[in-house]
Design a protein that fits this description.
82% helix, 0% strand, mainly alpha
């Protein structure tokens, strides 16, 4: 058990509790730049870490709030899980060329961080817009969860969105949170914010679990590091959740986005 890893887990957990996002987008760069882990090890360990920490959140959203749309979760998974397995297969066949796999993961991590930073900047705007649309829909009795596209193309768009998330998350461990919620906000503008969060969280669990187990089979998971992170992050998330009402999100989210932009550029330029 390493206290520095646990302290880092607590810090990231605190930010996740306050802002609702940032687990993979902060944890993976932290492991690479602060502790010197290889990108592949950082990604693999963070994926297993994410699948464990997100599970408790789904129990709350499904059991207490009933805020998971399992139909949308299935369509997202139909695209993300096969693409995750295909991505893992490609990575396994590149294992013989160490520099290629490291370069692929590093570049993908940078791209995912840049996309996540942009998603963070527009997410609050989209959330406010979705809330206003929801109020109007309530007044006019518009059906909840009606999508942006026709029912025929709605499922296709959801599966394709899941496929993109499957590749990005498997390569970088980043994107299941911020990118997933922004994608759902775009696809289903009338869905309530609570359902957006719950549905995205439910989809992230099988995706991060399969991707994490795939990286584990490739030897890209440090179990000692994983245990240390969990020891710190669980209380960190609990404390952050209680602080979230006192710290203004409009201040924290741009700061987090700028940090991710800087880190993402560094990864892409390597």
């Amino acid at each position: 058990m390493n206290l520095m890893y646990s302290a880092s887990g607590f810090g990231v957990g605190l930010l996740v509790g306050v802002t609702g996002v940032g687990g993979g987008s902060l944890m993976t760069p932290l492991l690479v730049f602060l502790f010197g882990f290889k990108p592949a090890i950082a990604v693999g360990t963070d994926l297993i870490y994410a699948s464990i920490t997100k599970t408790a959140g789904v129990f709350v959203h499904h059991g207490k709030h009933g805020s998971v749309d399992w139909g949308i979760v299935r369509w997202l998974a139909l695209g993300s899980l096969p693409l995750s397995l295909i991505t893992l297969y490609v990575l396994k066949n590149l294992m013989e060329v160490g520099k290629e796999i490291t370069g692929t993961i590093t570049f993908s991590l940078g791209v995912a961080l840049l996309l996540t930073a942009c998603a963070l900047l527009v997410r609050s705007v989209l959330l406010r817009k979705a809330a206003k649309e929801q109020e109007l829909d309530d007044d006019h009795s518009t059906p909840d969860n009606s999508g942006r596209f026709s029912p025929r193309w709605e499922k296709v768009a959801t599966v394709l969105t899941g496929a993109v998330l499957g590749v990005l998350v498997t390569l970088s461990s980043v994107g299941a949170g911020a990118l997933g919620t922004v994608a759902l906000l775009f696809l289903y503008p009338r869905m309530t914010t609570l359902k957006i969060v719950g549905t995205d969280l439910a989809h992230a669990i099988p995706l991060t679990a399969i991707a994490g187990l795939g990286h584990l089979s490739l030897g890209n998971v440090d179990l000692e590091l994983l245990g240390s992170l969990l020891v710190g992050s669980v209380p960190g998330i609990w404390v952050g959740s209680h602080l979230s009402a006192r710290i203004p999100e409009y201040f924290l989210r741009p700061v987090l986005a700028i940090l991710l932009l800087v880190i993402g550029v560094k990864f892409v330029m390597q």
